[in-house]
Amino acid sequence: MEDLKGSISEWLPGKQSEPEGAVPVPGSRNLINRACVARFCTMAAPTKVAIITGASAGIGRHTAIALGEAGWKVVITARRSEALEETKDMMKILENKNCLAMAGDITQETFVKSLFEETIQIFGRLDLLFNNAGMFQPQIPIENLPLEVFQNVINVNLIAPFLCTQQAMRIFKSQSPSGGRIINNGSVSAQVPRPLSYAYSSSKHALTGLTKTTALEGRPFNITCTQINIGNTETGLANRLAQGALQADGRIIPEPLMDVRHVVNSIMHVVGLPNDVSVLEMTVLPTQMPFIGRG
Ligand SMILES: NC(=O)c1ccc[n+]([C@@H]2O[C@H](COP(=O)([O-])OP(=O)(O)OC[C@H]3O[C@@H](n4cnc5c(N)ncnc54)[C@H](OP(=O)(O)O)[C@@H]3O)[C@@H](O)[C@H]2O)c1
Predict the structure, then answer these.
(1) Is the predicted pLDDT of residue 36 greater than 90, yes or no?
(2) What's the pLDDT score for residue 293?
(3) Per the record, which residues fall in region Disordered (predicted)?
(4) How far apart are the C-alpha atoms of 171 and 77, rounded to whole Å?
(5) Residue 24, in any domain of the structure
(6) Which domain holds residue 83?
(7) Mean local confidence (pLDDT), 195-204
(8) Does the pLDDT of residue 136 top 60, yes or no?
């Protein structure tokens, strides 16, 4: 239980969600299967442009690498510039130089505006926004959960996708040819909460509302919006679950994790579709994860 709680300061603004040094290296288990990525090269137009938030680690980093390999121009963002540069270097290894790295806090409106302006200035258009940046929370009773922690989780997991969606929708509607795709990284916690996850589950449930409204409002403009709701995936955010995760009946048991490439491959399937085809929702999780019924 202590492991799951962490300290409150860990969840306040500015805290990194993945330990320094936890950078996957080529050949590691987390790298995307090259044969698999090669298959996607035939599915995506080489001139397409993507923005990925939370690309300094985990799912965002590996999605950036896969899109780069598939010939996309990729704008990557997160707060930690060094870790972001490492992602960019990993893309260079894959011989893709069409990458712009912009470090900043995605919850800040001025930064979000400059991110999209710079993207258009450099690459001329936008085809995909992957709202991926996110954070979890300390699992403590609501009586002890400071408002600042709750708001911080909401800011990263909900306000930031709102700010980015706002900018992307403007571009998608006005560019020629018009249209585009947004993928929101939700969670199975958008469907069923973990114990003591007030902030995280609230943010992810609310994200579903943003996803559905965006899909509805985007329809006349050939703009599509997907929510990918994933279960335990091997990243800095979730690795602690393999040691032990609090269950609804009070037990703490280790939960299985899946390799990040399964998430990325699912995302690459969606981005390979034309904009007149939508995937509204996708749930991907380890088969043995105690999710259905949360037990
Ligand atoms: N891993 C799982 O099992 C799992 C399960 C369900 C859902 N998800 C969702 O998947 C998404 C990605 O998670 P992950 O597992 O890849 O986590 P991760 O490895 O911890 O990566 C989180 C990313 O978000 C960025 N970020 C956090 N706060 C930010 C801020 N204020 N401004 C800009 N960037 C910020 C981090 O970058 P900096 O620290 O450099 O800013 C990092 O790049 C999240 O939305 C998460 O909720 C993950």
Answers:
(1) no
(2) 73
(3) 1-25
(4) 18
(5) no
(6) 2-16+34-294
(7) 98
(8) yes
Residue 264 Cβ < 6 Å to ligand 1: no
Residue 256 confidence (pLDDT) above 70: yes
**Position in ligand 1 atom list of the atom nearest CA 18:** 20
CATH number of the domain bearing residue 252: 3.40.50.720
Q: And the tokens for 66?
A: 């896969």
Pocket probe mutation, ligand 1, options 10, 30, 65, 235, max atoms within 8 Å of Cβ? 235
What DSSP line would sit under 129-191, residue for residue?
EEE----------GGG--HHHHHHHHIIIIIHHHHHHHHHHHHHHHSSS--EEEEEE--GGGT
Query: 12, 23, 59, 115: which to mutate for ligand 1, most atoms within 8 A of CB?
Result: 59
Catalytic residue among 200, 207, 210, 255: 200
Q: What separation in Å is there between the alpha carbon of 95 and the centre of ligand 1?
A: 25
The answer to whether position 21 is within a domain reads: no
Average pLDDT over residues 261-269: 98
Q: Does some domain include residue 252?
A: yes
How many Cα atoms within 13 Å fall on the side-chain side of residue 153?
Answer: 24
220 CA to centre of ligand 1 in angstroms: 31
Q: Identify whether 200 is a catalytic site residue.
A: yes
What is the C-alpha separation between 59 and 218, in angstroms, rounded?
25
Write the residue with the smallest CA distance to atom 34 of ligand 1: 78
CA of 94 from ligand 1 middle (Å) equals 23
Q: Quote the pTM value.
A: 0.88
| Residue type (1 letter), 96 | N
Does residue 29 lie within any of the structural domains?
no
Q: Total domain count for the chain?
A: 1
Q: Can you tell me the distance from the alpha carbon of 106 to that of 127, in angstroms, rounded to the nearest whole number?
A: 19
228 lines ligand 1 (CB under 6 A): no
